[in-house]
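job 3f2a | input accepted
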Amino acid sequence: MATRGSIDQIAFRYRPADSTTGVTRNTAKRLAERLGVDETQVIHLALHEMAVKLLPQYEADDAPLTAAQIRQIRKRSPQGKKRSVRSSLFEVAPA
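job 3f2a | predicted structure (95 res):
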């Protein structure tokens, strides 16, 4: 627990080689230079990006939608023919 007026801190050690579980100090310095920030800010930016990707950004709601909410969604959603989109990353030659 932090004492009054102090900042919570953790030990941080760079890895001897870049891997999926960490980076070298040289990599952190290169990122800092590229982003125009210091190494500490690089760490904060990386953690923030992970938090946004991995953690819920809103309170969990355990209740189903009400009939009124469903009506509002339907009213604001485009209505009409059902359509589908089909695409491929590869060109398919006719058989």
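job 3f2a | The helical segments are 25-35, 39-54, 67-76.
job 3f2a | closed
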